[in-house]
Amino acid sequence: MTLENKINDDIRAAMLNKEHDKLEALRAVKAAILLEKTKGSAHELDEQASMQLIQRLVKQRKESAEIYQAQNRKDLADVELFQAKIIASYLPEQMTEEQLKHEIRSIISETGATGLKDLGKVMGMATKKLAGKAENKVIAAVVRELLG
């Protein structure tokens, strides 16, 4: 089942259960998927593109929540955090820091990286291999730690 089909099924279920907040988050995901599909020449999203899209949506919601909290708008921040939680449920289980370090060590040995000068090479491979399993910001921090 593709991500789009799963979202459509969940939208139907949220409508039947009258879960308006969840429905709003799911419709935002569906809209983003449709925009992404019509953006380029590809009419279907592969799994990696879908995971990147979901990660981007979660990141946007979290950033918006931080801004709302800084402006003392807890009501709006709560909505954004709830939507981020719903959208994040479509991502694969996030890796622990130990699992992430293990994977990045293997990537470093594969690429033959020796220092921070090889950061780009390791990050390129790590973001492809770990797409959806960890945030890029966390991956970058671990790579810097291990190469530094």
Kindly list the characteristics that best describe this protein.
148 residues; mainly alpha; Hypothetical Protein Yqey, Chain: A, domain1; Arc Repressor Mutant, subunit A; 7 helices
Characterise this structure:
The mean pLDDT is about 90. This protein has seven helices and no strands. Helix 3 (about 45-70) runs antiparallel to helix 4. It starts with a helix and ends with a helix. The longest helix is centred in the middle third of the chain and has 24 residues, at about 45-70. It folds into two domains: about 5-90, Hypothetical Protein Yqey, Chain: A, domain1 (Orthogonal Bundle), CATH 1.10.1510.10; about 95-145, Arc Repressor Mutant, subunit A, CATH 1.10.10.410. The radius of gyration is 18 Å and the shape is globular. It has about 150 residues and is mostly helical. It has helices at about 5-15, 20-40, 45-70, 75-90, 95-110, 120-130, 135-145.
Helix-strand blueprint:
Elements (H helix, E strand, L loop, with lengths): L2 H14 L3 H20 L7 H24 L3 H15 L8 H15 L7 H11 L6 H12 L1
Helix pairs in contact: 1-2, 2-3, 2-4, 3-4, 5-6, 5-7, 6-7
